[in-house]
Automatic annotation (TrEMBL):
It holds the Pfam family PQQ. Belongs to the bacterial PQQ dehydrogenase family. It comes from Sphingobium xenophagum. Binds 1 PQQ group per subunit. Binds 1 heme c group per subunit. This is Quinohemoprotein ethanol dehydrogenase. Residues 1-22 form the signal peptide. Its cofactor is pyrroloquinoline quinone; heme c; Ca(2+).
Length: 709
């Protein structure tokens, strides 16, 4: 065990060192009540918020001005609504004609009177809780779409449901994916040309990505666009997939290839082009996915498709041959900018890989690409070829050595929406500064449960070493970055204690709103980042706010509720911003609001009191390998749980092998999302995992005792 721990200390020392080195380097907008259509979304009346990004260009900019730098000090809570779920809340609300529509965790949808906060209706699609094992990153949902008099939601188990806006009753429901496979939906749909567009997730488990369009009136599928080719000879494929097939090798189709379209979309009505962000490979490790070679189109790409037909238009690949979970599914926004004396139609994205890209959205030509955080997997982007200038050490499967990647799979920017202020031409980016040790897993084989990524999470686990942990915590942080896309440089920055801070809203009142992992909801000055206002939300905020106007008053609304992958997987780093509980609420603010939240419940830190660790080193090591592969993504790196699911080091089940087996082997808690693992783990292996968790709890108890002394 000492040798294994020494290796992990060395790996994390490299991780910390790489981060330290890198750190050096208008109007009232009144509208009539009625159905939502393209004309209303394009007109973008300032009072309304009709689509998840407010407008088809996804700028997340409100033209309202009543709440501004002179009045922000009067902003107060007007009303709030407690939600009936304690998982992460990632949704952007919609405001349509006096009503707020929100989705919550587990794909539930609610409608509130936007004046009073009265619940008008609540819709529960009854997602089977065992679906959670197919979700990489919590039971979240990022929002709904509207068209006509319907609200549309994609559910975690893969359905697309149309809901009557007035009654909250389902109008139609279609299954959009093969529910026998490890697909999920967490993203917000968009509606274009009377078609509801939705993608899916699942590339960490084994999936072939696609996005599809469904008739808003009937739910009938109108077109489907695959992002990776099928097994040769099994399908009649269009030319764009035939061209893509030449960039793949081996038997990629066995795990689907990946490339899921799980979040970002934008639409240009004039060009009738729909822009989609494509995800990572399945598995991450390209050696297992594609014999370690090829660009693997259209992974990690921005792809334009003709919205009416779903036919391919153009693509730009941000990370050829992705092997680091560097998705291009992050927020895509459109703008018309003056560049070199000419007005250009541009597309902007800050994907996980750490570079900020600006493309000509008419043809996909790369206009600029600069890193917005320190990166070490590439030294830059070759503007002639459009390809990254890679660090050869980054291809860990070729070297056989750990690569301490900065950024890591959390991404320099994850799903949290950016915002664009057309007045200042600044883009606001919720950035993460966190590295990760990519260690290739020897002899990896896919399995039906758990992550299938080809990375050895057990070897990368945080060691029980005080100095290593403190250094890792110090090297991990977050930031709000104001980025000038034309000058390709940072204009100002707000530094945060930790990553995983909320999405952004920019307003014509020269304000930028953002929630934080520490539980604050803040307003900053657009031009220089000065903090002008703050509200204690009692829980981490990861969602993006909106602003709307009703009865001549401007409001700001945001979903609050800590969650997502950072609240689950990173172990001790989950609490970098401080222990954050989940208190799920919808918060609504206006000038001179007088409401107050109830007192926050105490957050007690329970001492570790595990049974003695009596297993031998081989049994503990075997359990650690299994825990890293199958358990750590939910229960935390090195068995250090976040605040969303139980921290197993504190579990009473550690004292009873039979009860432990009833849960892990028999699935006694499947209705809570903890399914049976009997199909892939034997009773002896499940007992090995218990031995490992007991061992880890005892290690940390010793560390805590030493710290207390």
């Amino acid at each position: 065990m000492k040798d294994g721990m020494s290796m992990r200390v060395a790996v994390w020392a490299m991780t910390i060192g790489s981060l330290a080195l890198a750190a050096c380097s208008q109007g009232n907008g009144a509208t009539g009540v009625g159905g939502v259509d393209a004309a209303r979304i394009i007109a973008a009346a300032p009072a309304q918020w009709l689509s998840t990004g407010r407008t088809y260009d996804e700028q997340r900019f409100s033209p309202l001005t009543a709440i501004n730098q002179d009045t922000i000090g009067r902003l107060g809570l007007d009303w709030f609504a407690d939600l009936d779920t304690n998982r992460g809340q990632e949704a952007t609300p919609l405001f349509i004609d006096g009503v707020l529509y929100v989705s919550t965790a587990w794909s539930m949808v609610k409608a509130y009177d936007a004046r009073t906060g009265k619940l008008l209706w609540s819709f529960d699609p009854a997602v089977p809780r065992e679906t959670l094992v197919k979700a990489c990153c919590d039971a979240v949902n990022r929002g709904v779409a509207a068209w006509g008099n319907k609200i549309f939601v994609g559910t975690l188990d893969g359905r697309l449901i149309a809901i009557d806006r007035a009654t909250g009753k389902a109008v139609w429901s279609v299954v959009t994916l093969d529910q026998s496979k490890n697909y999920t939906i967490t993203g917000a749909p968009r509606v274009v040309n009377g078609m509801v567009i939705i993608g899916n997730g699942g590339a960490e488990f084994g999936a072939r990505g696609y996005v599809a369009a469904y008739d808003a009136d009937t739910g009938k599928e109108r077109w489907r666009f695959y992002t990776v080719p099928a097994q040769p000879g099994t399908e009649k494929e269009p030319d764009y997939l035939k061209e893509a097939a030449a960039t793949w090798h081996g038997e990629w189709w066995k795990q689907g290839g990946g490339g899921t379209v799980w979040d970002a979309m934008a639409y240009d009505p004039e060009l009738d082009l729909l822009y989609i962000g494509v995800g990572n490979g399945s598995p991450w490790n390209q050696a297992y996915r594609s014999d370690g070679k090829g660009d693997n189109l259209y992974l990690s790409s921005i792809v334009a498709v003709h919205a009416r037909t779903g036919q391919y238009a153009w693509h730009y690949q941000t990370t050829p041959g992705d092997s680091w979970d560097f998705t291009a599914t992050q927020h895509i926004m459109l703008a018309d900018l003056d560049i070199g004396g000419a007005k250009r139609k541009v597309l902007m994205q800050a994907p996980k890989n750490g570079f900020f890209y600006m493309l000509d959205r008419t043809n996909g030509k790369l206009l600029s690409a600069k890193n917005f955080v320190p990166v070490n997997w590439a030294s830059g982007i070759d503007m002639t070829t459009g390809r990254p200038i890679e660090n050869p050490q980054a291809r860990y499967y070729r070297t056989g050595q750990p690569f301490i990647g900065s950024p890591g799979p959390t991404g320099a920017h994850s799903w949290h929406p950016m915002a664009f202020d057309p007045k200042s031409s600044l883009v606001f980016i919720p950035a993460n500064l966190a590295a990760f040790p990519y260690i290739p897993e020897k002899g990896w084989k896919a399995n039906k449960l758990g992550f299938n990524v080809g990375i050895d999470f057990a070897a990368a686990a945080m060691p029980a070493d005080k100095a290593t942990r403190e250094a890792a915590m110090k090297a991990t942080s977050g930031a709000l970055i104001a980025w000038d896309p034309v000058a390709q440089k940072e204009r100002w920055r707000v530094s945060y204690k930790g990553p995983w801070n909320g999405g952004l809203l920019a307003t014509s009142g020269d304000l930028v709103f953002q929630g934080t992992a520490t539980g604050e909801f803040n307003a900053y000055a657009t031009r220089d980042g000065r903090k002008l206002w703050s509200f204690p939300a009692q829980t981490g905020i990861v969602a993006a706010p909106i602003s709307y106007e009703l009865d001549g008053q401007q409001y700001v609304a945001v979903m609050a509720g800590w969650g997502g992958v950072w609240a689950l997987a990173p172990g001790i780093l989950s609490d970098k911003s401080g222990p954050s509980r989940n208190i799920s609420r919808l918060l609504v603010f206006k000038l001179d609001g007088k409401a107050a939240l109830p007192a926050a419940p105490p957050l007690a830190k329970m001492p570790l009191d595990p049974p003695p660790s009596t297993a031998n080193a081989a049994k503990i090591a075997a359990g650690g390998a299994l825990f890293g592969r199958y358990c750590s993504v939910c229960h935390g790196d090195a068995a250090i749980g976040g605040s969303i699911v139980p921290d197993l080091r504190h579990s009473g089940m550690l004292n009873d092998a039979d009860i432990w087996g009833q849960v892990v082997h028999d699935g006694a808690l499947k209705d809570n999302g903890m399914v049976s693992f009997a199909s892939i783990l034997s009773a002896a292996e499940i007992e090995d995992i218990r031995a490992y968790v007991i061992h880890r709890a005892n290690e940390d108890k010793i560390l805590e005792s030493a710290h207390a002394d």
